[in-house]
Structures are given as structure tokens and as C-alpha cells.
Design brief:
The complex is a heterodimer of chains A (174) and B (163). Chain A has 174 residues and is α+β, with helices and mostly antiparallel strands. Helix content of chain A is 24%, strand content 28%. Chain A has a domain at 18-64. Chain B is of the alpha+beta class and 163 residues long. In chain B, strands 1, 2, 3 and 4 form a 4-stranded mixed sheet that branches. In chain B, β2 (9-15) and β3 (21-25) form a beta hairpin. The chains are: A alpha+beta (174), B alpha+beta (163).
Chain lengths: 174, 163
């Protein structure tokens, strides 16, 4: 039999700093809170964690792992939300593991309400007028353009593959 | 050169970074997508892997052997083996993970990455930089901006060790 020896040195990894794929896979296994910290390791790490591919892959994996969290408002109207692992409620763990989340946009007067959610994003209305999309995991907030009629309320229905959010006009539901 | 066949079993030689040779059954390396393609398409019988330390290669071959012996009855034993497999110093675990990624041993890659993630999740940013040999390219102002934006991510006792 012929002996063939191939050299594959050209594309081999430098063991001193792991390649992109490995960093990507390792970061994928970390919870969001840790990722927020890891963003400041370097620009390269920050760009991986902020990339749409990473965000999508992370969402897919955490849904698979069923690491679900419940988010709630302590009382209607206040810009204060809490989150806790769903498991701690389902299995009635004695210690409270809920975390307070501050809504990043506060006005002194205003009624804050969760209108709906999908893929970990929340649609929050303030004073039944302004609409925000909020990603509480990464504390990112986007104000939505005002609806056509001022009394309309919208809630997110679903997210498309390209991460567009389809909003449904809730006032037309009944 | 080890291009011989003994009975039906084909033998293959892997050469580690320090030229140490490992002779093993070809069927074992088929768990690696990279080596499988080389064996099947190019009919190689000796594969140099200069970027992989022999110490790392020994560990990986050990895994391939154990994994090949996996049956429903020794599942528990295999799980214990896996736990021990990643119970090495972090630097060595990273070497293994990089090699596993290079060799494309899919099931093992996710397991190793999870093990690395578990080991770094309580580390400080500075420790993580040391472990991954990264120089920070953020200005101190930019860095404090991160801390200001998400102070809760930086809370708690963070571990500065690199092991």
C-alpha cells in the first residue's frame, strides 16, 4: 500500500490563543450576566458577543436548556421589574432568587405595563402612549416609532428570522 | 512506516507536535471528522499533527478509546470518565478544547467548551484575559463605561486565579 503523508500544518491553530470558533463555543455556554462582563475582555470578544449570529445561537441554546426565567412587575405603574428562574417557582425553592431590574427609562409620572413578550424581548408601554422594546438580559432599550393613533396599543406577536418584530394592535382585539 | 494492516484492522499513525508517534486502529480516529476525511479520501496512513502537543494527543486518544467502548451498560462509568477527563489545569483544558475543535470531534467539543465556561464564569476580567492570553484593547474610560452600564455583571467576589 502506498504511504501518503500530508502536512496540515498550514491551517493549524496556535495553541496560545484559541481560535474564533472555540471562543464562540465557550461563550455560548455562559449565562447572559457573565457575557455582559466578558464583553469588556477585548474588542474581539465584544464583537463576538454582540453579533447577531451569536445572539441567535445563544437564544437557541438557552431555550434548549430550558433555563427559563419569569419576569414580572411588582405593581402596575412602577418602572420596576423582577426576574427569577421559573424552576424556583415550580419547585417552590425556599430561598428567593429574584433579581430586581430597573427599567432604563424613567419618568416621574407614568404607568408602566408589560404589553407582551417574545424571545426574551418585552414590549413595555409607558403611560399608554410610548412603546419600548426592552431586552432585560442585556439591559438594552429601543423606543418604537409612535403608532398612527395615539390610543392604540401594540404588543409583539412574533419575531421573524431576521429579528424583525411583528406588532399586533391590542386595542383592535376585542 | 505504519501503513500495514493486521487482519481486517487498519492501523494508523498520528504524530504529535514533538514528533512522538501514536499507533492506533484506524476505526478509532473516524470519530474525528478531520481525520476521517483524510483517511477516507486521501488514504493516508500517517498523519502529522504538529500543532497538537503529545500530552494533549494522549488525552484525546484516551477519550476516543473510552468513547468507542461506550455501551448502554457502562454509561455511568463513561460519565465519570468524562468528568475526570476535564479535571485538569485550565491551560491544559484549553489546549484539549482547541485540538478537539481542530480535529472536529463534535460531541466532545461542546462538552469541553461547557467545562471551560464553568471554570471561567466566576473569574475576573483580568483573570480571563490572562487565561486566554489577551491584551485589553479598550481604554480605561471605555472599560469603566461597561461597568457603569451593567454594574450587576461585575458584582460579587470574582476569582483572579488562572487555574
Amino acid at each position: 500500500m502506498d504511504t501518503v503523508t500530508t502536512s496540515i500544518a498550514s491551517s493549524s491553530p496556535d495553541s496560545r490563543s484559541p481560535p474564533y470558533d472555540v471562543i464562540f463555543e465557550i461563550l455560548l455556554q455562559l449565562p447572559v450576566m457573565i457575557l455582559l462582563m466578558m464583553k469588556c475582555v477585548s474588542r474581539f470578544w465584544n464583537s463576538i458577543i454582540s453579533s447577531p449570529q451569536f445572539i441567535k445561537a445563544h437564544l437557541k441554546l438557552s431555550t434548549k436548556k430550558q433555563d427559563l426565567r419569569l419576569l414580572f412587575n411588582d405593581s402596575l405603574g412602577r418602572p420596576q421589574f423582577y426576574t427569577c428562574p421559573l424552576s424556583s417557582i415550580l419547585y417552590q425553592e425556599s430561598h428567593q432568587r429574584h433579581v430586581k431590574l430597573d427599567f432604563p427609562c424613567k419618568s416621574s409620572s407614568g404607568e408602566y405595563k408589560i404589553e407582551g413578550s417574545c424571545n426574551g424581548l418585552l414590549c413595555i408601554s409607558v403611560s399608554r402612549r410610548d412603546l419600548f422594546l426592552w431586552n432585560p438580559s442585556i439591559r438594552e432599550l429601543k423606543k418604537l416609532p409612535p403608532p398612527l393613533a395615539s390610543d392604540n396599543r401594540f404588543r409583539p406577536l412574533c419575531m421573524h428570522q431576521n429579528n424583525d418584530v411583528l406588532l399586533q394592535n391590542a386595542s383592535k382585539l376585542s | 512506516m505504519a501503513s500495514s494492516t493486521t487482519g481486517e484492522k487498519k492501523i494508523l499513525t498520528l504524530k504529535g507536535g514533538d514528533n512522538e508517534e501514536f499507533i492506533l486502529e484506524e476505526s478509532l480516529v473516524l470519530q474525528s471528522e478531520l481525520l476521517k476525511n483524510m483517511v477516507k479520501e486521501e488514504r493516508v496512513s500517517s498523519i502529522p499533527l504538529p500543532s497538537i502537543k503529545s500530552k494533549t494527543l494522549v488525552k484525546i486518544i484516551e477519550y476516543l478509546k473510552k468513547h468507542a467502548e461506550l455501551t448502554p451498560s457502562n454509561k455511568e462509568e463513561f460519565k465519570n470518565f468524562e468528568k475526570e477527563f476535564v479535571n485538569v489545569v485550565l491551560e491544559e483544558l484549553l489546549d484539549i478544547t482547541v485540538a478537539v475543535n481542530y480535529l472536529k470531534i463534535n460531541g466532545l467539543l461542546e462538552f469541553c467548551c461547557q467545562a471551560v465556561a464553568d471554570r471561567i464564569k466566576d473569574k475576573s476580567v483580568e483573570a480571563v484575559r490572562k487565561i486566554f492570553r489577551i491584551e485589553s484593547d479598550f481604554t480605561p474610560e471605555e472599560e469603566s463605561e461597561f461597568r457603569k452600564e451593567t454594574p450587576e455583571a461585575f458584582e460579587g467576589d470574582l476569582d483572579d486565579t488562572t487555574n
